[in-house]
Specification:
It is a single chain. The chain is an alpha+beta fold and 471 residues long. The chain is built from 15 helices and 18 strands. It folds into two domains: 159 residues, no CATH class; 260 residues, TIM Barrel, CATH 3.20.20. The strands form four sheets. The protein has an eight-stranded antiparallel sheet, with no helix packed on it. The protein has a four-stranded parallel sheet with strand order 12-13-14-15, with helices on one face. A hairpin with a 2-residue loop joins strand 6 and strand 7.
Length: 471
């Protein structure tokens, strides 16, 4: 079914491993370990060890999707130290179907393995492995071997179900120094590799750009915002990383609370009147760097009261279910004694910085890092508080965002031929930005949605109607 196109109407758009390569592995082993590298990104082995546990007794199921369509499944049944996994998927007539069982020792390493079924090309496979008395024996369609084993060793099957990589990860978490020998050859390790080294940034960006992709994100630790842009970044998330660029000499490690507390302490002293700030703003504009400032996050963080309601949710909080309201506190930073003034003036300083960035021509797109919809509207209201005209703010949320992500050919404006994804607002947010909250009707994908009914389905109480004669 073709989606309806605009004929004439107000647009509304939102925008929204640390596993190193196992050393000394033959190429075939490396390729078979790719699922582990992709599916188990762990920030640190210690933290992961605390969080990871063996699968619970019973059955858990995973669904495999290709391009959004169901294409297969995996069912894992655990009973004591014995696990059975059935895995199958269909990729245009091809695809594995494997039924495997294995038994684990106290270290979480398989000591028995039996796998049967077919591989991706529908060739029948049978595979067995046994480890007993210091001897490991295995057989598959290309190998038949026996070897002496001292200590723990993890056999890597040729055609395993995906669950085997979870087994290996959990075994590595238990292993001494998070290291295990592999059979038939090689070794797997689990370790933290630290922040992104600055010299790698241009390589990543070049590869992304060669594939028509944009590079966007946090500024990595031990890298300044300018280095991030020089390395090829197209977009920066969160305004605090702009402030941190001026503090780089003293704040390099940002994988901790420094990325917030240092900004709270120093933002008021880094206004757009400072030459170094003006120079960097000009640099960002010259490089066409896009900024997603997420101002609502810092408004809450620097409000000084951790028990206060998150700013921007005042009009909705009372209507939300009780269990949701519990999570709506600001989570503000605790203000150190003697730094009350700095913290109090931090967010107003960030508003001035945002306006200076806008005035210099830096492209700004509104994101939230918070509750979708309600906080997005509040993000737009913050931009107006910073001194940006409401109509310009609406452009940021519609055509500017669409242009940045390359979909302005079909959305972002109301015009013939564009997708008719619209909202009907009871007011004029181009003059009064808070009218953006008064959504009466949503049109999306050829369907009309009543916001009141949508909220009701989510357990949100109805809005209180305005008194007669008011709007």
């Amino acid at each position: 079914m073709n989606r309806p196109r605009c004929r004439a109407f107000l647009p509304h758009a939102t925008r929204s491993p640390n596993l190193p390569l196992p050393p000394q592995l033959p190429r075939t082993s490396f390729l078979s370990l790719l699922p582990l590298l992709l599916l188990a990104p762990l920030g640190s082995a210690t933290a992961a060890a605390e969080a990871a546990t063996a699968p619970a007794e019973g059955v858990h199921r995973d669904e495999i999707r290709i391009m959004g369509n169901a294409a297969g499944s995996q069912a894992v049944t655990t009973h004591g130290d014995t696990v059975r996994a059935e895995f199958s998927f269909n990729d245009r007539g091809r695809g594995d179907h494997i039924v495997a069982t294995w038994k684990l020792d106290a270290a979480g390493v398989p000591v028995q393995y039996q796998g049967d079924g077919n591989d991706y090309m529908k060739v029948n496979v049978t595979e067995t492995f046994q480890l007993a008395g210091g001897r490991a024996t295995w057989r598959n369609r290309s190998e038949q071997a026996t070897t002496t084993v001292s200590g723990e060793a993890f056999y890597v099957p040729m055609n395993p179900p995906p669950e085997i990589w979870g087994v290996l990860t959990r075994a590595l978490l238990k292993a001494t120094q998070h290291r295990l020998a592999l059979l038939p050859v090689g070794e797997a390790t689990l370790e933290e590799i630290g922040p992104l080294p600055p010299p790698i940034m241009p390589v990543i960006a070049a590869e992304a750009h060669a594939r028509g992709l944009r590079v966007s994100g946090h500024v990595p630790a031990f890298m300044s915002a300018q280095e991030f842009v020089e390395g090829g970044a197209d977009e920066i998330q969160h305004l605090n990383f702009i402030v941190l660029d001026f503090l780089f000499d003293t704040v390099k490690e940002t994988r901790n609370m420094n990325r917030f507390t240092a900004v709270a302490e120093h933002a008021r002293d880094l206004g757009p009147d400072k030459p170094e700030v003006r120079e960097f703003i000009t640099y960002l504009a010259r490089h066409h760097t896009v900024l997603d400032p997420t101002m609502n996050v810092f408004e809450a963080m620097f409000c000084g009261n951790p028990a206060a309601l998150t700013p921007g949710l005042e009009g909705i909080a009372a209507r939300l279910p009780a269990q949701v309201r519990r999570g709506l506190l600001s989570g503000a930073l605790t203000v150190p004694k003697g730094e009350e003034a700095q913290y109090r003036e931090a967010f107003p300083a960030m508003l001035r910085l945002l306006k200076a960035l806008y005035d210099a021509g830096v492209t700004i797109i509104p994101g939230t890092d918070s509750i979708p919809g309600y906080e997005l509207h509040h993000e737009l209201e913050i931009y107006v508080r910073a001194g940006i005209a409401p109509a310009e703010v609406l452009r940021m949320a519609t055509i500017t965002s669409a242009t940045v992500i390359g979909v302005d050919g079909e959305r972002g404006v109301i015009a013939p031929g564009k997708l008719a994804d619209l909202i009907l607002v009871n007011g004029d947010p181009s003059r009064e930005i808070t009218d953006i909250d008064k959504v009466d009707v949503v049109m999306k994908g050829g369907k009309l949605y009543d916001p009141a009914r949508v909220e009701g389905a989510l357990g949100i109480s109805p809005r209180t109607p305005p008194p007669p004669g008011t709007s």
